[in-house]
Amino acid sequence: MFKRFKPFFALGLLLSVFFLGGCSNYIVLDPKGPVAAQQKDLILYSIGFMALICVVVYVLFTVIVIKYRDRKNDDNFEPDHHGSKKLETIWTVIPILIIIALAIPTVTSIYDLEKAPVSASGEKKEPLVITATAVDWKWIFSYPEQGIETVNYINIPKDRPVQFKLTSADSMSSFWVPALGGQKYAMPGMETKLYLQADHTGTFSGRNSNFNGEGFTHQIFDVHSVSQSDFDKWAKDTKSKAPKLSKKQYDQLMLQGEAKKMTFSSTHLKWVDHAKDRDYAVKTRERLGVVPQNPHGSKAKDANNPEQDSHGVSHSH
Amino acid sequence: MKWDEFFVTGDPLIYGADVSIGLTVIGILFYLTYFKKWQWLWREWLTTVDHKKLGIMYIASAVLMLFRGGVDALLMRVQLATPDSKFLDAQHYNEIFTTHGTIMIIFMAMPFLIGLINVVIPLQIGARDVAFPYLNAVSFWTFFIGAMLFNISFVIGGSPSAGWTSYMPLAGNELSPGPGQNYYLLGLQIAGIGTLLTGINFLVTILKMRAPGMTLFKMPMFTWSALITMIIIVFAFPILTVALALMTFDRLFGAHFFTLQGAGMDMLWANLFWLWGHPEVYIVVLPAFGMFSEIISTFSRKVLFGYKAMVWAMVIIAGYSFLVWVHHFFTMGQGELVNSVFSITTMIIGIPTGIKIFNWLFTMYKGKISFTTPMLWSLGFIVNFVIGGVTGVMLAMAAADYQYHNTYFLVAHFHYVLIAGTVFSCFAGLIFWYPKMFGYKLNEAIGKWVFWVFNIGFNVCFIPQFILGLDGMPRRVYTYSAASGWGGLNMLSTVGGFLMGIAFLILAYNFYYSFRYSERENTGDSWGLGRTLEWATTSAVPPHYNFAVTPTVTAMDPLIQMKRDKQDVKPKIEDIKKIHMPDNSGVPFFMASFFFVAGFGLVFEWYWMGIVGLIGVFITLIIRSFDKNEGYYVSEEEIKETERLTV
Ligand code: HEM
Ligand SMILES: [Cu+2]
Ligand SMILES: [Cu+2]
C-alpha cells in the first residue's frame, strides 16, 4: 500500500522544494524594492510553517494508513476507540500558536505598508506623488508637482518612495507592479494610496490585475526606475519639449480601447479629478456619441464599424 | 432585435455546439417516442415527489453540468497552453471563464451535494421522506430551469462575461451591454429560490423527523453537516437574492444601486456578493466533510474520532463563515485595522478545519482500513485538501495577499479546495451510495483507474499554477507573451487538465459498464460495513416508503448496534401498519417552466413575456393552494408483499 501513496508524499516534498529552492526566479520572490522585499519575507516565513504542517500531516497519514490497513493480524484493532482529550488538546493548541506566530508579522506588515518605505540608505525622503488613473484599458499617470502626464509608462527615481494616488475613470481596476510590491484597487469616484519604491534602476512591468473586460489582458504599463538626476532631467525636458494635453485628446482617451505610450507637458487634473467625478468617462462617451455595444450584437459583428477601431486588436466576433 | 443577434453566430465552436445540441434533443425525443417512454417519464420522474428520485435527478443534472463546466475548463486550458494563442479571442475567453465558474459552483457543486443529501439524509435519520416533499420538487425544478436558462446563453443571445463574481460597474449596462449579464442575474435568481427552499425543507426535516431515539448528538456526521449547511443556506441565500435583485433593477429598470452613474456604490456589490459568497464556500464544503466522515469511519470499521469536536468545529465554521468576507478584497483600501481584523478571523477559521483533518486521521488509527474506491477518494481528499488549507492561510495574511490577489496562486488555491474537497466528496459519495440508488455497485477496478488518473491530473494541473502565480501571472488573462516565460508551466497545467478529462470519460464508461455487468445487490447493507440507518433497509434500493417500520435508535451508529445485538433489519409482521405517502404532482414542473418563460423574457427585456411567465407562476401557486392533496395510504398487504413477509 505504501507504494500507492508515495506519489502524494513526493508531491508534497516537491512543492516545498519548488517554493523554497527556485525562489530567486519568480518575480514575487525576487523583489526590487523594500515593499516587495517585506512581502517576500512574510511569504517565505509563512511557507516555512505551512511546509511543517504538511510534513506532520503527511507523515502521520503515511504511518497510519500503512499500519492500520486491513491485515490478517488485528491485535491493534479497536473499533470503539473514539477520542483522546490529550491529543485533541494538542491539535487545538498548536494551530492556535501557529496562527499567533503568523498574525503578528502580518498585522505589523499591514501597518508598515501604509507608510512610506524607508530608503536603503536609511534616510527619510519626501515621497514623489504620482496619480494613476485606470481607464478601460490603459493607465494615465499625472505628476502634479512636475506638471507632466504620461500614458502607459512612468519614470520614477530609484531609492525614493513613490506615493501612487489610485483612481479609475470607469471599471474597478487594480494597480500592480509585482517586482516592486503588492497591488491595490483603483476605483471610480474614490482615491486609494499605495507606496512603492525601487532599490535598483531598471524596467519593471506593471498592469491592471483586476478583470475589467475585453482589453484587460493588455492593460499593462512599464515602470522605468532611473537615478534622481536622470529623473529630474527627464521631467524638465518633458515639461519644456512634450506637447500639451488637449481636452479633446483627453476625451479620446476616455473611450474604451488600448493606447500607445504618450507623454504630455500638462496634466488632466485641471479638468477632472476622477476620484471626485465618478461618471466623467461615461458622460464623455455619451457626448461623443459612442454607444456601448453588445459584443454579440449586429453592430459589433460588423468589422467595418468605425466605433470598433478603438477596441484594438482582440475582437473578431 | 435581429435574428443574428438572437442566435450567437460567427464562431465554428458555437456552430458545433448548435449541431450537437440539436442532435441530442432529436435523439432523446426519438428514444422516448420509439420506446413509448413518455408516460413513464411523466409518472416516474417529472411528477415525482420522492426524495430518492429527486436526488437522482439532481445528481444526473450535476454530472451533466460537470461535463459542461469541464469542457469550458479544457477550452481555456487549450487557449493558455501556448503563449500568444489565437484559439479563443478575449471576449470568448471571458465568457468561458464566467460560465465555467458560475456553472461549477452554482449548477454543479451545490446540486451534486444537495442530490446526495436528498438521497441519503431521510434514510439516514429513518424518515419516510422530507418534511415537505412537494416543496422538494419545486426546489429541484427551479434549480433545473435556472441552470437551463443560464446554459442556453451561449447559443442564444451570448453568455455573460463579467466573471462569476460579476463585479460592478463592469457588469452594468455601461460596460457590459446586451443580454449576457441578464442571464447570470435571472438564472441564479431562479435557481436560488430552489436552494433557499431546500435549506428550509431539510432544516425542518432534520430537526423534526428523526427516528425515535436519535437525539441530536446521536445523529450521523453527514446529517450534522447537512443540518449546519442548511442553516448557512437560510442565512446566506437571502443576501444573494437581494443583491441579484438590486443589480437586476440597475440593468433592466435604470436604477443606480451599483452603477457608474447616479452615485452608485460599486463596492457595495462586492461586499454583498462575498457576504453570500464566503458562506457559499462552506455550503459546498461542509457536506463534503460530512460524507468523508461517514466513509472514513465505515471503511476503517471504527467509530468517528472526536465526534463532539467535529460537530463543534462545524458549528464554529458556520458562524465564522459570515465574519471573513473582506478577505476577498484586502486590496480595496479599507485601512489597516479592517484588514488586520479580517486577516485574523480568516486564520482562525483554519483552526476548526485543521482539527477535523486530525480527527479523520485518528479515525483510521487502530482501525482496519479497506481501500475501496470511496475510501481512496477520501484519502486523496486528506492529502490534497491540506494543500488547499495551508495556501488558504497564506492568502489570509493580508500583507502577503497584496501579491497573491488576482493571480494564479489564488486560482490554484480555490481549485485545491473545491476539487479536492467538493468534487472528491461528490465522487466518493456517489460511489458509496450508488448501490442505495441503483441496486448495484460501480465497478471497483475501473473506479480505481478513475481515481489515479484524476488525482495525478489534478496535481499536474494545479501545482504549476501556484508557481505561475508567484511569477506574476494574473488570473482571467486570455493570453500571455512568450517573453513572460510562463509557457512551460502552462503547457504542463493543460496536460493535467486533459488527464482529468480522460478520468471523467472513464467514469462515464464505468456508469455504462456497471449498468451492464455489475452484480446486483440483495441486501440493504451493500458494503457489509454499514453503520447508519440508510444501510438498514430490507432491500438494496429502499421502497418508496423507505422503512416498513420506523426504526428505533438506541446508539450512535444504530446499524452497528443492531449487528452487535444480532437484531434483524427485517420488520416483524405484526408491526406492519398502513403508511401514509404524498401524491405525485405535475405542478412544480409547470411552475418552473413558467419561471423559464418569465426569466427568458426578462433576459431580453421583453416585458410582455416576463409578465406572462410570472402570471403563470402565480396561477400554479393558486392551483396548489386549492389542491387538498391528501396523499394516499400504502396498504398493509402491499407492504408485506414488498417486504416479502409471509404469515
Ligand atoms: C476539470 C478541472 C478544472 C479545470 C481544468 C479548471 C480550470 C479553470 C481555469 C483555466 C479557470 C480560469 C482561470 C482564469 O482565467 O482566471 C478556472 C476558473 C474557475 N474555476 Fe475551474 N477548473 C476545473 C474545475 C473546477 C471546479 C470543479 C470548480 C468548482 C467547483 C471550479 C471553479 C472555478 C471558479 C469559481 C473559477 C473562477 C471563475 C472566474 O474567474 O470568474 N473549477 N478554472
Ligand atoms: Cu471604491
Ligand atoms: Cu472567502
UniProtKB/TrEMBL annotation, chain A:
<feature type="domain" description="Cytochrome oxidase subunit II copper A binding">
    <location>
        <begin position="125"/>
        <end position="237"/>
    </location>
</feature>
<feature type="domain" description="Cytochrome oxidase subunit II transmembrane region profile">
    <location>
        <begin position="20"/>
        <end position="117"/>
    </location>
</feature>
<feature type="region of interest" description="Disordered">
    <location>
        <begin position="285"/>
        <end position="317"/>
    </location>
</feature>
<keyword id="KW-0813">Transport</keyword>
<comment type="function">
    <text>Subunits I and II form the functional core of the enzyme complex. Electrons originating in cytochrome c are transferred via heme a and Cu(A) to the binuclear center formed by heme a3 and Cu(B).</text>
</comment>
<dbReference type="InterPro" id="IPR002429">
    <property type="entry name" value="CcO_II-like_C"/>
</dbReference>
<feature type="transmembrane region" description="Helical">
    <location>
        <begin position="89"/>
        <end position="111"/>
    </location>
</feature>
<comment type="function">
    <text>Catalyzes quinol oxidation with the concomitant reduction of oxygen to water. Subunit II transfers the electrons from a quinol to the binuclear center of the catalytic subunit I.</text>
</comment>
<keyword id="KW-1133">Transmembrane helix</keyword>
<keyword id="KW-0679">Respiratory chain</keyword>
<protein>
    <recommendedName>
        <fullName>Quinol oxidase subunit 2</fullName>
        <ecNumber>1.10.3.-</ecNumber>
    </recommendedName>
</protein>
<dbReference type="InterPro" id="IPR006333">
    <property type="entry name" value="Cyt_o_ubiquinol_oxidase_su2"/>
</dbReference>
<feature type="transmembrane region" description="Helical">
    <location>
        <begin position="42"/>
        <end position="68"/>
    </location>
</feature>
<dbReference type="GO" id="GO:0042773">
    <property type="term" value="P:ATP synthesis coupled electron transport"/>
</dbReference>
<keyword id="KW-1003">Cell membrane</keyword>
<dbReference type="InterPro" id="IPR008972">
    <property type="entry name" value="Cupredoxin"/>
</dbReference>
<comment type="similarity">
    <text>Belongs to the cytochrome c oxidase subunit 2 family.</text>
</comment>
<dbReference type="InterPro" id="IPR011759">
    <property type="entry name" value="Cyt_c_oxidase_su2_TM_dom"/>
</dbReference>
<dbReference type="GO" id="GO:0016682">
    <property type="term" value="F:oxidoreductase activity, acting on diphenols and related substances as donors, oxygen as acceptor"/>
</dbReference>
<keyword id="KW-0472">Membrane</keyword>
<dbReference type="Pfam" id="PF02790">
    <property type="entry name" value="COX2_TM"/>
</dbReference>
<keyword id="KW-0479">Metal-binding</keyword>
TrEMBL record, chain B:
<keyword id="KW-1133">Transmembrane helix</keyword>
<feature type="transmembrane region" description="Helical">
    <location>
        <begin position="183"/>
        <end position="204"/>
    </location>
</feature>
<feature type="transmembrane region" description="Helical">
    <location>
        <begin position="581"/>
        <end position="600"/>
    </location>
</feature>
<dbReference type="GO" id="GO:0016682">
    <property type="term" value="F:oxidoreductase activity, acting on diphenols and related substances as donors, oxygen as acceptor"/>
</dbReference>
<keyword id="KW-0186">Copper</keyword>
<dbReference type="GO" id="GO:0004129">
    <property type="term" value="F:cytochrome-c oxidase activity"/>
</dbReference>
<dbReference type="InterPro" id="IPR023616">
    <property type="entry name" value="Cyt_c_oxase-like_su1_dom"/>
</dbReference>
<dbReference type="GO" id="GO:0005507">
    <property type="term" value="F:copper ion binding"/>
</dbReference>
<dbReference type="GO" id="GO:0015990">
    <property type="term" value="P:electron transport coupled proton transport"/>
</dbReference>
<keyword id="KW-0479">Metal-binding</keyword>
<comment type="pathway">
    <text>Energy metabolism; oxidative phosphorylation.</text>
</comment>
<keyword id="KW-1003">Cell membrane</keyword>
<keyword id="KW-0813">Transport</keyword>
<feature type="domain" description="Cytochrome oxidase subunit I profile">
    <location>
        <begin position="34"/>
        <end position="554"/>
    </location>
</feature>
<feature type="transmembrane region" description="Helical">
    <location>
        <begin position="12"/>
        <end position="34"/>
    </location>
</feature>
<dbReference type="GO" id="GO:0005886">
    <property type="term" value="C:plasma membrane"/>
</dbReference>
<feature type="transmembrane region" description="Helical">
    <location>
        <begin position="606"/>
        <end position="623"/>
    </location>
</feature>
<protein>
    <recommendedName>
        <fullName>Quinol oxidase subunit 1</fullName>
        <ecNumber>1.10.3.-</ecNumber>
    </recommendedName>
</protein>
<comment type="similarity">
    <text>Belongs to the heme-copper respiratory oxidase family.</text>
</comment>
<dbReference type="InterPro" id="IPR014233">
    <property type="entry name" value="QoxB"/>
</dbReference>
<feature type="transmembrane region" description="Helical">
    <location>
        <begin position="342"/>
        <end position="362"/>
    </location>
</feature>
<keyword id="KW-0812">Transmembrane</keyword>
